[in-house]
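--- STAGE predict ---
source: upstream dedup step, 1 unique chain passed
mode: sequence only
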Amino acid sequence: MAADLDFDWVGFGTDILTAVDAFGLDGAVGIGHSCGGAALLLAEEARPGTFSALYCFEPVVLPFDDSPTPNPSDPLARGARQRREIFASRQDAYANYASKPPLNVLDPEALAAYVEFGFEDLPDGTVRLRCRGESEALIYEGGFRHPAFSRLATVNCPVVLACGAESYSFGPAALELLVERLAKGHLEVLLGLGHFGPLEQPSVVADSVIRALDPPPA
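--- STAGE serialize ---
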């Protein structure tokens, strides 16, 4: 995590461009979820033509040209600062998350991977979340202040904006406002899924990506 706690989301887009350059990618297809989807859009806006196509599942892009004023009482940020960080073991963490919202909707393998790689081992034998609560809170707060929406008109590659029909956050109505600004935007709604769609039913979302980015010949 950033040592200086600077989690401006424009920086996430810069991180993507750095990775693109490091791997020498040309005309890559970008696939991202939530913050990752917003970061892809920010990267393409900063350097048009980086991607040949984008698939963004519920990108965190608020439909405002002017960034909202930071809200210190934002419920997501407040919840992150109160989040339990330490568990007796990874098994204990898994059982806790699997028993209650919001992570109880995740595919068991996805949740297991989150617990396996999202925790670090402490000297006393317990485990702690690698992303600390304060860092997560600052990331949430930054999600409402980046300029991706105001620059969507600069994105010329095909963009599929997907969402879960049961989403409580960035559902069809919100994404339609983004599609209207994109030169080649398309909305795909997946039934039975919420904001965690790619982690709820990975195979369903994978099929959606294949349909969207590799359509059958006419």
